[in-house]
Amino acid sequence: MTKPNAIIFGGLNTCSRALAAYLVPPDGEPLVEHLRIVDKYSVSPPTTYIGSDFPKVLEKPNVEYRQANLTIPSTVAGCFEPPAGSAPDARTYVFDLTGEIQWDRPEAVQIAHTLRVARLVGQEAARRGVAAYVRMMHPFYECKEKGAHDEKEDVRPDGVHGTWWHETLRTLGAIDGLNLVIVRKAIVYGPYIDYGPVMSFIAIGAVYGYLKQPVKGLWAPGKHPVHTVHATDVAGAFWACAEWMHRVGGRAKADELAGEEIPFRNDKKAAEIEGVISPETRVVAPLFHLEDDSQVTLAQFSNIVAAANDTTYEFHSFVINTMAKFKLEDVVEEINEEHVSVWTQMLTESEPPISSTPFSAYADVYQLKRHVVAFSADKLKRIVGYQLQRPQFEEAGLREIIEKLRAERTWPNAKPQPASES
Description:
Elements: E1 5-9, H1 16-23, E2 34-39, H2 54-58, E3 63-67, H3 73-79, E4 92-96, H4 107-128, E5 132-137, E6 141-142, E7 156-157, H5 159-173, E8 180-185, E9 187-189, H6 197-211, E10 215-217, E11 228-230, H7 231-248, H8 251-258, E12 259-261, E13 284-290, H9 298-308, E14 313-315, H10 318-326, H11 328-349, H12 365-368, H13 378-384, H14 395-407
Parallel strand pairs: 1-2, 1-4, 2-3, 4-5, 5-8, 8-13, 9-11, 10-14
Antiparallel strand pairs: 6-7, 12-13
Helix pairs in contact: 1-7, 4-5, 6-9, 6-11, 9-14, 10-11
C-alpha cells in the first residue's frame, strides 16, 4: 500500500518535533512518503529550541521544512501543494499543532494566532480533500477532581487562552468536508520538550537536589489529579487517529463512531468575531482524550520528580500555603529568586560550564496555580485501538530525559553541595 504524505503545521515549540521523529525516525523505516513541516520559526539557524535529535530528521531526503507566516491565506494554500513527483490527489494527513500557547498573551493575539490560523489551515485542508486532519488540544481546561473524565464531561476552558483554543475546536468542527479528529491531551513531557510545567518542575527538583534539601510544594495533600502523557504517545496517538479516520472513510462515519458535541464556551458577543461559530449552532466532531495510565495526583507527581533528582518532597508551612491562596504573585517572585539564582550557579559549575539553555527553574504564576488535569483515554483505546508506549509516569523516564539533555549540554551536571553547606 502506498504511504501517505503528511504535513505538520505549527508546534515546533511544542510537539511537532516528536511527531516528525515518529513519522520519519532518524533510524528506521518512515511511516510516510513525504513529510512537510511548516512553522514561523527558522531551523537554520534555529530561532527556537529544537533539541539535538530533530536536525537528524531534517536531514532525511523525504523531509522538508518551510518557514512560513500562516496568517496569510495564500501562504497556507501554497503549503498544501504536493511535493515534486507526487500526484495532486495523493493521500495526505494533516497534523494541526498551530496556536499561541502562552497563557498571558492578549485576547487579540489568541484570536489571530490560534483561531484564525487554524481556520485558514482547516479550510484549505477541506478544499484539498485531505484524508485526515488531526488537531491537537492542550489541557487548557479546569477539570473536576472526581468523575469519569471522559469526552462527555463538561470541562471549562481556563482563561483567555483556554477559551480561544476551545473556540477553535468549534470553528474547525463546523468546516464542511474536513476529516477532523480532535485529540485533547494531558500534560505532556518527554525528551527535548521544553514547554509546559513538567520541565520547570524537574529543574526546580534539580535545584533542591543540588542543595540537598526537600522539594517544597505550595498546595496541601489531596487527590488533585495532574495526569500526564509522554511525547512519544502524543505522536503515536496522532498517527493512529489519522489512520483511523482514513480507515473509517471520512467525517460522517467518524462522527457516528466518536462524535461529541463541542459546546460554546465564550462571551455571547464573541459570536460577532469572524470565524466564531454561533452559540446556537450545534458542533459535533470526533474527540478523543489522551493520557497515560498513571493518573498521578500532584503529590505523586511531585514525589516522582523529587526522586529523579535524588531528593524528597514535602509541603510548605500552613502560613506559606495560605499566602499562596491569597497573594500567589508575591510568593512566586520570592521562590523564583532563589530557584533561578541556584540554577544559574549549577550551570556555571557544570563540567564544562553551560552558557546557554532553554531550560529554567523559573515557574510563573500560571504554572504554580492549582490546576486539575484529568482526561480518561479509554475511548481512544477502545475505538481507535491505540496502545500506549509509555503507560507510566515514572522516575526512570525522567532520568532518561535528564541524561539526554546533559548529553546535548543544555542541563547542568554540577555536583551537589556538601551537606554542611545545605
